[in-house]
Amino acid sequence: MNKPTKQIIINCGIYEKRIAVLQNNKLDDFYIEQGGTENMLGNIYKGKIESVVPGIGAAFVNIDSGKNGFLFIEDAQQRVTEMFDKEDFDIEKSTGKKRDIKDLIKVGQDIMVQVEKESIGTKGPKITTAISIPGRYIVLTPFEESIGISKKIVDRQERQRIRNVIESLKLPKGIGCIVRTAAQFMPDKDFHRELKYLLDLW
């Protein structure tokens, strides 16, 4: 069985940069960055809710970038304990009835968000409340306390070793992480070094 192949092709011009990501010789992702434009992808902002539109289940958030960020209700719900009462969330899951976005966020409310997709044309950037800070081996999740390990790491002993290492690092309360595939068989010290860097960055 052939191993999956991944390629990154970069085309840099004077006015524009293009990056294509190929998985098994098929286009998997495509990025364009134009000269003179600010790259917002991954940036974290403290924004303010400008308007809530129940009809489309979304809110517009002022992140002081010229265009309001676009926050879907699904992205707002990812931070359950931050956004609304945990008991209400349990009721919602048991009844199967979705909450109205007006019950989660209010106009004028301050909110911390991360840009998930750059703005296109007149459309503002897509944002989320599920903040994550990626490293080479670890993705820090400041508002999600759980520890996740890439499913592509299939060796049970290695998965347990990684989990033991992460648990020994004693992450601050309320902060979790996801271990990336690249972390497989890496020495313990690399986890220590990267986690310290990500926490300092946060």
Distance between the termini: 41 Å
Estimated share of beta-strand residues = 25-35%
Could you give the order of strands across the largest sheet? 4-5-6-8-7
Instruction: Count every beta strand, where a strand is a DSSP E run of 2 or more residues.
Output: 12
CATH superfamily of the largest domain: Nucleic acid-binding proteins
What's the alpha carbon Rg, rounded to whole Å?
A: 20 Å
- The secondary-structure element order is EEEEEEHHHHEEEEEHEH
Domain count: the total is: 3
- Find the structural class using helix and strand composition: alpha+beta
Describe, in plain words, how this protein is organized in 3D:
By secondary structure, the chain is of the alpha+beta class. The protein folds into three domains: 1-37, no CATH class; 44-128, Nucleic acid-binding proteins (OB fold (Dihydrolipoamide Acetyltransferase, E2P)), CATH 2.40.50.140; 133-201, Ribosomal Protein S5, domain 2 (2-Layer Sandwich). The protein has helices at 73-76, 80-83, 86-95, 101-104, 156-168, 188-201; strands spanning 6-12, 16-23, 26-34, 44-53, 58-62, 69-72, 110-117, 126-128, 133-134, 138-141, 147-149, 176-179. A five-stranded mixed barrel has the order 4-5-6-8-7. Mean pLDDT is 83; it is low at 80-94.
